[in-house]
Request: fold
Amino acid sequence: MPRPLPLTDKTPGTTLKKAVVAGPRRVPARPDDVQMRAATLERIQSVVVGSLEDDKAQDIVTLDLEGKATFCDRMVIATGLADRQISAMAEHLVEKLHQAGVKRVQVEGAGGSDWVLIDAGDVVVHLFKPEARAMYALERMWGSDLDEAVEG
Reply:
């Protein structure tokens, strides 16, 4: 008499597809981990803002994107008046982030453009010339106005 086959999952597809459908296994965060992460974010944000203030950046705005965006938890936006100032701000900021222990810092547009993006992991920094900042209007895209529009 043949043995019955073992019961299997009835989800169609390959093992990989089944794993994707199931999604990642989430381990609940411990309260200590959450507090450490928040403290680290605050420390990195203060390094960024301090560096920009030292370099005379204008209109520094910090946006809390935790829970709104998957690519970062904080966004800092600032204005520089000239290409050289923006390049210097980016260079100084990268140095200070490395000194603060942030190992992987990516910089885009530092070769003299209207917009430099600095990706420090959970904190993303945008340095604009005034015209570019007005054109892209990231504060309106990611700011509190977005929350009000979604809630209403």
The chain has one domain: 35-151.
